[in-house]
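Aim 2, interim progress. The first record below pairs a target sequence with its C-alpha cells.
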Amino acid sequence: MPCRPEKKLAALFGDNLEKLSLQAKGELKQVSKAIGETAYCQIIAALELGKRLANQREADLSEGYKIRNSSDTLAYCRQHFMRLAREGKQEEFHVVLLDEKHKVIKSEQVTVGLLSQCLAHPREVFKPAIRESAVSIILVHNHPNGDPTPSQDDKIITKDLKKAAETLGIRILDHIIVSKDKTLSLLEEKLL
C-alpha cells in the first residue's frame, strides 16, 4: 500500500512546520507526486491559517501586558514579534500602543517596506496612537538580514519620530529592532 502524502510530509518535517511553510511547490512535489497545485495550495493555506490563529491568540494574551522597564519591553517584543523576527522577508514597522499605566492596548503594523528599508512617516506611526488614545508607544521593526544593528536611516527615523511625539504629547518608550537571533533596544543603546 503506497504511503500517503501527509504521512510522508509528517515523516520528513515532523514538528518543524516553519520549515514546511518555506517549501516551494516543486520541493513538495519531490516528497510526493500526489502533491499537485491544489494540494500545495491547501497545505500552504492551512499553515497560514494556523499562523494567523497563533498570532490572534498571542495578541489576545498580550493585551493588558504591563511594561515597567526595558526588560519588559524586550521580553514583550521577543514574544509578540517572534514570527516577524524569524519569517519576515521585508522590513515591517509596527507600533505598540500603551495606556496611562503602560499596559498594552494593542499593536499595529504601520508599514511594510523593502528588503532592507522600511520608511515610517510620523502620520502613519501616530495615527493608531491618536485613534486609540495611547499615552505612550513602542516602535518596533525587523531586520530580515538577521543583524539588528541600527542603520543610519533607523537613527534618523527615530529622531524624527521622537520630535513628532513631543509635539503630540505622546511618549516613545523605546524603539526595538527584532531579528532572527537578537532583539535590540535603541533606548539601551542610548540612541533614543
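The second target in this work package is listed in the same format:
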Amino acid sequence: MRKNLQTYRQVNIESGILASDPHKIILMMFDGALMSIAEAKGAIERKDLAIKSKSLTKAINILCALRDSLDKESQPEISSNFENLYNYCIDTLIELSTSLELSGFDEIINFIKPLRDEWSKMPESAKQEGISLLNEKNFKQDQAAAIAGA
C-alpha cells in the first residue's frame, strides 16, 4: 500500500510539472525545498539519520537547481545576489548535515520562505511578461543554433 501511495505521489508531481508554467515550477521547487528542510529537521529530532540525509540531499538538489536556473545575462546583479543566497543556504545545509544544529534549519527556512511567499504573490501580468521574455530568449537561441547548424 505504501509503495502505491509513493507511486501516486510521484505521478501527481510529474503531472503537475508537465502541466505547469515556469512560475508554478519555481513555486513547487520552493515548496519542495521547504518541505525537505522541515523533514530533515524532524528526522534529526527523531534521530533518524537516513531520512535526514535523504531530505537534506533533496533540499540541496532543489537549491542547486534554483541557483542554476538564474538568468545571469538579463539580470546580472539580481542573479548574483540570489546565487550568493542559494550558495549560502546550500553550504549551511551541508554543515548542518554533520553538526545537527537545529537552529540552523530555522535560519535557512527564514531565508527561503519569504522568497516563496513573494513568488506566490506575483501578479499575473508579471508572470506573463516573464513567460514572453523566456519565449523570446528561447526563440533567439533556436535561431542562432539553426544558423550555426546550417
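The two ends are 54 Å apart (CA to CA). This observation will shape the mutagenesis plan for the next reporting period.
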